[in-house]
Structures are given as structure tokens and as C-alpha cells.
Please model this.
Amino acid sequence: MAAALSMEVVYAAVVALLPVLVFLVALFCLDSYKLLPVRSVILALIAGVAVAGASYPVNASLLSAHAMEVGTFSRYVSPWVEELLKGLVIVALVRAHRIGFLVDAAIIGFAVGSGFALAENLYYLHLAAGAGMGTWIVRGFGTALMHGGTTALFAVIGLARLERSPRWQATTFLPGFLLAVALHSGFNHLNHAPHLATLVTLLTLPPLLWWVWERSERALSRWLGQGFDVDATMLELIDSGRLAESPAGHYLESLKRNVKGTLAADALSYLRLYTELSLRAKGVLMMRENGFEPRPLDDATRAKFVVLRRLEQRLGSTGLRALRPLLGMRHKDLWQLHMLEAGG
Model:
């Protein structure tokens, strides 16, 4: 009898925990550019577990502070708390340039949501290990995928908006947050029909994520091709001595009239170094796309990063802002340098 019960618990754990992990691994393996190291995905998963732990006392405090039924609370309050806490992890990673493209936003977002779902399902397994298999099917294929999917959509929508407007604003991540809360709340509204909620989740979130994935991969391919050409042209102009004849050269000449001579020289040095490193980073991504593993970062490239950071300090925020029209320096441009500096 005890052996049968233990096997039921094992089956319940497999159904409750495995589906979301399989989906996460599939997303990771589908990434043709291999933008993310495995450790980043694992750390995002752990962060999701930590967020789940933090959300429990917050939800408990809010529930005890308001005279509200648990069902009502789960529909109208807990989605705001849980999506906010998961979203804060994504915002912190984007701000630190750990997420550069929509492809890895989807993976990291789903990983954070998966970690949250794993912790939540483990907690429910502890509380109700003897629940029927239907409960764990709903939690494994419905609730878990919902948590992963909503956080992935939050990350993708927020990053897409940031790419269109590179300046950080309070509203950058708001649409994605509201959508995540709405989907989460909608799922919880179907608590009376959990199998229907699971079916709706399976029919909507995976296809939606797949559509986002396809568009993201095409956008990344276009950006790589166009960016490589732009960087190569800029470097050729600098090396050939014809930069002064180009629009970029005219822009630098106008800067000379408004800044000190040393800063103008620093700006030209920064332009060259930034372009070289940007070209190298795109080359690394292209190698990964074609199945080749790039060589580890050499000492000469590391030395260039040291000089680049020193020039950034000398130019200051004003000087870097003045160079932005030449270098782009959008979020993905800064991410690629961080990726290369971290070791490719």
C-alpha cells in the first residue's frame, strides 16, 4: 500500500514538474544563435524559485489585511503581485544588459516563470500529495505553462518597446505587465473549470510564443546582416583616412568646434574601438549561427575593452550621448559588447 502511494507521488511529481522544464529546454535548443549560456538559464530558473518564495508572505499579508475570499483574491490580487515580482527580475536583467534580443528575452522570461511554477507546484505536492492525477495535469500543463508564458511575453514586449525607444521610461514595461496580469487573472477566473483553463493555455500560449520566436529570429538575422555591413563600412572609412569626407566625419568635425581638442581625439578613438569590438561581437554571433564555437577572448581584445572603458570615463555621459547618432548604442548594441567582454 505504501509502495503504491509512493509511486503515485512520483507520477504526480513528474506530471506537475516535467512539462514546463521540457518546454524550457525546447526553447533553449531552438535558439540557433545560442545567445545564452546554460548557467544564465539556470540562474533565471533559480531566481523564479526565489520570487515564488518571496510572493508567499506578500500574498499572505495582503490576504489577511483584507476581508476577501481566497478565490476572489487569486483572481484580482495575486496576479498583480506575482507578475510584478517576476517582472522585476526581467527588468533588472535587461538593465544590466544580460538580455539583448527578443529570442533570449523569451527564454529567460520563460525560465523565471518556470522557476516560479516549480516552487509553487512543489509546495502543492507537499500539501496535497494524495490529490488525483487530474490536479497535477492541470498544474503541470496549465498553471506552470501559464507562469512561464506570461513572464516570457512580459520580457519580449518590454524589450521590443525598449528597442524602439532606447531611453528608459517608466511606461516601457507597462503594456507587457498589464497583458501578463490579464492572462494570469483570466486563467485564475477559470478555477471552476481547471481542465478548460489548461486547454486554453495549451492552445494559446505555446503558439503565441512560437510566433514571437519566429519573428525574433528573423529580426535578429536582419540586424546582424545590416549591422555587420555598417560596422565594416565605418571601419574601412577610418582605416582609409576618408572618414572626414563622410557624413560621420562631418558630424565629428562639428563636435570639435564644441568640445576640447583632447575630447575630440578621445571621441575618434572611441569610435574606432567601439566599431572594432562591435564587428567582432557580430562575427561571434554569426559563427554560433553556423554551428561553430568561437575562440575564447584573447588578451588583445581584453586590452581593447580596458581602453574602451577608460575612454568612456573620460568622455562622460555628455560625450557618449553626442556619439550616439554615429554608433546607435541601442540596447542590443550594448548587449553584444557585454556578451563579447564576458567571454563570447
About this structure: Residues 1-5 have pLDDT under 50 and may be disordered.
